[in-house]
Amino acid sequence: MSTETADVATTARSIHNPVLTGFHPDPSILRVGDDYYLATSTFEWYPGVRVHHSRDLVHWRALGGIITERRLLDLRGCGDSNGVWAPDLTYVDGQFLLVYSDVASFASGYWDPQNYLVTAPDITGPWSEPVKLHGRGFDASLFHDDDGSTWMLSMSADWRPGRDRFGGIEIQRYDRAARRLVGRPRLLFTGTTAGLTEGPHLYRHDGWYWLITAEGGTSWEHQVTVARSRELFGPYEVDPAGPLLTSVGRPDLRLQKAGHGSLVCTPHGDWYLAHLVGRPYTPLGNCVLGRETAIQRVEWPAGGWPRIPGGVPADEVTVTGLPAHPWPAEPATDHFDGAELAPCWSTLRRPATPDWVDLRTRPSHLRIHGGQSPVGRQTPSLIARRVGATHCSLETVVEFDPVDHRQLAGITAYYNTLNWHHLYLTRSDDGRVVLELLSSDSGRRTPYPELTVDATGVTRVGLRAEFDGPAVRFGYDLGGGWRRLPVELDATILSDEHAALIIDGEPAAWGFTGAFLGLWVQDLGGDGGFADFDLATYREH
């Protein structure tokens, strides 16, 4: 190794948290050789299980997602914040293995989770047909023991009234050759007084089995709990020093909700924890950016317990021993020149198939065929990207010739079916093409008829949506330069906290995603309406 290369390899650099900004919760981190991968939850969005790649833990690039087809998971009819929960990515015998949960319910203490496993020779696929695993609980993961055996862990759900719905962590053997679970499940760990024990990951290190779990719920009381045992089936002793990581009781911290972690070890023996965080706009306020992914350095002395300095999430973490490996910057403007959508885009409840996402008919344009209304859960036509900063914007140019008021195309600041802001072109009853603005707050729609703009005769219309801290603003360009609509809309309704709904002590809805900026086309009459988008520019300010 040359002196210059050695210097690069040993120079300390900093991780700036969060490493994955915007909606990227429940990280599962994996190292294969010199490559690091982060898999995160996607809920009702395709592609399911978003994956990022790094070679130095500092710089990450989006690879897209794994669940890109309905054969891997059908999200038609999926409720808000249901769908793909807490994926787990592992590697053994030259194959990637991905376990993911499809959670269908919230009501009355039921979740209706179904767990699946797919495998692939490469992180980019091709991925196998799904193996259907048990549905006894969610947050499933795999542990590959030193003897070659593989075990599946998950939280154990208990629907019975008066019982703890988080019944602990269970384990069952998975036969990789037969591709099925075998033997009887065992209850491995019932958790601590923090409760809500979930998100298990198991590791073998220093002669111990180490069980990492998420506890306290995924909001302000979240934490990472560590327990260990000399035997696979326990008993497991909880770290007497308390949580490995938490933000509880520290509203002054920039990074809140710290929890749901997984560990990775570098070739040099350094340990790191990937975990979720939230960045509220005010102390313990709404997290419009959703739950994000951060990384902490872990000190792990021989014979001792793993430790994170202070037990709290740091904004900046030093990394040593890994050569710097930045990736080319993502272009600010997508000209839609590719055969497929760029990895930054996601689609709601249905994959980006040519029947409604058309990048071929008109070169350098994205043609979106209209879909259902904002409350439709089978065939919506929304293509969106995650909001990654408190100040950011999305601009586009659209060509659209609506036949009536049932056809709408425009730009949106979106959270879920009940919470969104939408600036769109449509046709009014008097035959004019007009720009209209509509908002939905917990399902209560607010129109702004006084802001209607006549766009009749304008072929190409520029549209802009902007997040400015707690405000959302919209603008338009009919050919004479940009104009701003004279209204500020509430950005904080596009948050996990605002979306959650508890009725008589029962969760009627949760908010587990984050804010999006997107291109939305509706054809409520099913008359074949479509819109052509020439470009889309995303900027963080």
TrEMBL record:
Q: Which CDD domains match?
A: GH43_SXA-like (cd09000)
Keyword Transferase belongs to the record: no
Keyword check for Hydrolase, yes or no: yes
Provide the alphabetized UniProt keywords: Glycosidase, Hydrolase
Q: Which family does it belong to?
A: Belongs to the glycosyl hydrolase 43 family.
State the organism of origin.
Micromonospora echinofusca
Q: Which InterPro entries match?
A: ConA-like_dom_sf, GH43_C2, Glyco_hydro_43, Glyco_hydro_beta-prop_sf, Glycosyl_Hydrlase_43
PANTHER family according to UniProt: BETA-XYLOSIDASE, BETA-XYLOSIDASE-RELATED
Name of the protein described by the UniProt record: Family 43 glycosylhydrolase
Q: Which domain of life is it from?
A: Bacteria
Limits of the Beta-xylosidase C-terminal Concanavalin A-like domain = 333-539
